[in-house]
Amino acid sequence: MKAYEKLGSVATIALFVLVLIAMPAARSQSDNAPHEIDDLAAGNAKDVPHYQVDPFWPKELPNNWIMGAVGGLFVDGQDHIWVLQRPLTSTKVELGASQNPPMSDCCNKTPSLLEFDTAGDVIKSWGGPGFVKDWPSMEHAIWVDKGGNVWISGSGADDRQVIKFTPDGHQLLEIGRKSTEPKNNQDTSLLGQPAAITVDDEAHEVYIGDGYMNNRVVVYDSDTGKFKRGWGAYGIPLSQISNAVESSGTGGAAEESRSPATAGSPKIAPYKAGDLPDKQFRSPVHCVRIANDGLVYVCDRHNDRIQVFTKQGKFLKEFFLRTAALHNGSAWTLAFSHDPEQKYMLVDDGEDNHIFVMRRSDGVVVSSFGHAGRNAGQFIEVHQIGMDSKGDIYTGEVITAKRLQKFILQK
Question: CATH classification of 26-409 is 3.40.1160.10, yes or no?
Fold first, then answer.
């Protein structure tokens, strides 16, 4: 071969490599299947947390009560576990003692809000349908701020509000209201089936993952309810957030109500594994969590990703998790490890029914536990996760599981 022909071949190969490099990647690390943990990362980290289920937690509920689907779960500064469960999901058979005449000796309808201690005893309960005028149609998120005030949201068809209560259930504040108005990401006077709540006590702000209808993060003054700021995926302003809804067949969140207010809205294409990263959040925006260093983590559930922002909404980075997860997505909610640096995130994947341990710095999956099933330590749509000061974690499940579980950190 002549010299100039060799040079031409080399140039062609080099050009092809450059084209491949320039092509946008569909997804980044953390696409691992459950058994495809980063063994090198896991092997080099002696501090990766591991857990063992406590099959005896919680104790039997008092008053002949029975647990419904767990909408929300939060562990407060006293290591009390607050659970927002859904009484209306209990079946006639499950409420046999409440029927007329009674069908069985158990059970009775349970208040929506239950406060447990770490031993698994119920120490407080209140709330439920009709408790206040705008009590959620389908209970979802719960948060307890440092003042002991309890914040709740709902994901029902007309749940367009977040409500703040005293520890004993006296209503203090409502952001939004019940409504069946159309989806509107630009309207900050209404929410859209809000799925997540986080209170920044020092800043007197409440962050809301909004939600199952809307697809945004919005921040309000936690004392007055005044709107302060909001953003969409990659930090886009509210004015640029689409009001389209997911087409039928994308999977939708099976455990939530769908709103008639979205019936006439424009549709977006179903999520498909391998697509380029979506420029918008998909519904639901299922978690908002603030780390000790002030970074804000947002679960974009149906897009199988977690996006990271400053408190002002500036986009910093994103991690993808199990992008082959269709239907209800993989990034449901998360808790940070209890070390001061919060080196790891425990990410709840309710579609695959695993808890993934991810490095917070780069999203690498270093461990996981859980499996679909009804035995202790297994999950059926694990929906919420919380962590106490010892590093033990608590989970809540929806659909047919309707249960709480505790996992003890192994030293």
Answer: no
